[in-house]
Amino acid sequence: MNKAWFWLLFSAPLWAGQYRDPFQPPSTAICADPGVSPVGWQLKGVIGTPDLRYGWVVTPQGQWLGLLPRQRVLDGDWQVMQILPRQLELAAQEMAEACRPHTGNVVLTLGNKPKERQ
Question: Looking at the DSSP assignment, which residues form a beta bridge with residue 49?
Fold first, then answer.
């Protein structure tokens, strides 16, 4: 009986998922395409009240997006941080350290080209 418990506790299938195979390369984070970011977006308008504003942006592909505060975009990798009367700020969210963009938040300003905030 004691022998059965020993094999049950130390059998490979029960513990195999906890240890990395030393003969395989280490796993790396799966990152989204670094070219997919709101850097090329243009703010075309902001509507609403100080309590709740909506920002209208257009992507380089010509797609129009209506954005709300705290909304996540681009597969959840970016979040709308704030929408001011003439400005919208987005920040990278919950990415593995290896996947984080080298730049800070993206600030879109009405009538101007997008800029990156450190």
Answer: 52
Q: The domain spanning residue 43 has which CATH number?
A: 2.30.30.830
> Per-residue pLDDT for 103 more than 70?
no
Q: What is the structure's pLDDT at 58?
A: 95
Beta strands per DSSP E along 1-118: 42-49, 52-58, 64-67, 72-73, 78-84, 87-92, 105-109, 115-117
Residue 107, domain extent: 37-118
Residue 1 falls within a domain, yes or no? no
Query: What would the pLDDT profile of 58-80 be if each residue is shown by its tens digit?
Result: 999 999 999 999 999 998 889 99
Domain count, the chain: 1
The answer to whether residue 8 scores a pLDDT higher than 60 is no
Give the C-alpha distances (Å, rounded to integers) separating 116 from 21, 90, 112.
41, 10, 12
